[in-house]
Amino acid sequence: MLRRVNFYSICIAFGLSVLLILAGSRYTDNTNYRPASESRRNIKNFLKIEDVDENLLQPIPTNPYDGSPDIEKILDKTRLKIKHELWAYNFSISGVQRLEDLVIESGGRPLISLIISTWRSGTTFLGEVLNAVPGNFYHYEPFLNYGIIQIRGTPESDKALKTIKKMFQCNYDDMEDYFDYGKNHWHQFSHNTRLWDHCKYKKELCIDADFTSRVCRLFPFQSMKVVRVRLRLIKQLLQDKELNLKVILLIRDPRGVMQSRQHRNFCQPAPDCWKPELLCADMISDYVAAGRLLQQYPDKFMALRYEELALNPSSTSYDLLKFLRLGVTQSVDEFLHSHTNIEVAGVSSTFRVSRDVPFRWRNVLDFNFVDEIQETCKEAMSLWGYRMAHNATHMTSKDFNPLDQYSLTQ
Ligand SMILES: *[C@@H]1O[C@H](CO)[C@@H](O)[C@H](O)[C@H]1NC(C)=O
Ligand SMILES: *[C@@H]1O[C@H](CO)[C@@H](O)[C@H](O)[C@H]1NC(C)=O
């Protein structure tokens, strides 16, 4: 009897250890941050990049695909890369004499650009234009973890404005919510290409506040897009003398916004997203705020309609960069060349823009739906210079130009 019990306990113990070993190996698999197929892809990308570099005759001394785990080494390489990419940059355009004047680590103050907008209004494209400037650290959208909601006032705005300011100062302390969300949504970091270059190999680094701060403090230009905070609240940041901030409000025709949001499954349960009356009330509030900011901070605030950017991507981007005191570099021209005048393929994943993208709603939407939006959005559309379509034929006719003039200083 005793021997039998012993036999069974040995069997159970053996079974348990096998289970533990299996579970252990699975755990390691899950936390392995670089699956074989991805590393193969990276090698391919790397080769492609090498081909391009040969043509440019400008060897880049650092290797963005280097998965070095040594943080000091990563920081050294990043410093070198920024210096190298900006060696021919004319810093007087940015209002300073040298790179160090814009680098927090060296006691300087970076140039900061904040894009304020709402979902599906062209921020992906505009954000990428700014990120094409070498030496730019793209904070992306800091409030993904808030869900599909708009922040229109206190108390939510207190925390949100504090977060924006802290991020622009490269201070990521007490931002557990932000990093926790990122752990399951890596796209929160991947748009920040110059951070992602390193942390994609060692994802712990992406959620490491200290590492993020130290990398951030090396970059002379900082940009961020925010689609969840209304413009009226941003005044507080423009008043802040500690920040070297410029703000761009990006507005889009509500008919185009609603058409684009129809493709997205994130919208439907969230009234802030699918109700045109909320979108257009925000557009009116943004219009009033824009007029005031333009008066008070003419050199720090600018409003832009997405349709104008899409119709004239190069000249509008040049004007915008000039306003932001950013130089037009070869990389910006290359980006504009490769991402414009080509048919758009999908939704958010591609950010190609052509002349007809902003007006696609005219051929896709049912006139009854358009008419509903127009009725709800009459005032917002008239303030921002969007013309009404009178009927279905008119809506699709070549003679109908939805864009009218508008003025913020009435
Ligand atoms: C740099 O830009 C300034 C204008 O911001 C211009 O006057 C100057 O000539 C430029 N320098 C060079 C070397 O291009
Ligand atoms: C549609 O609107 C246009 C422009 O206002 C007008 O000329 C035309 O007669 C309208 N067509 C119909 C069928 O109502």
From TrEMBL:
> Which SUPFAM superfamilies has this protein been placed in?
P-loop containing nucleoside triphosphate hydrolases (SSF52540)
Q: Using the record's annotation, list all stretches that form the Sulfotransferase domain.
A: 114-385
- Provide one Gene Ontology biological process annotation: N-acetylglucosamine metabolic process
MF terms per GO, please? N-acetylglucosamine 6-O-sulfotransferase activity
Q: Name one Pfam family in it.
A: Sulfotransfer_1
Q: What is this protein called?
A: Carbohydrate sulfotransferase 4-like
Q: Which organism is it from?
A: Vanessa tameamea (Kamehameha butterfly)
Identify the coding gene: LOC113392393
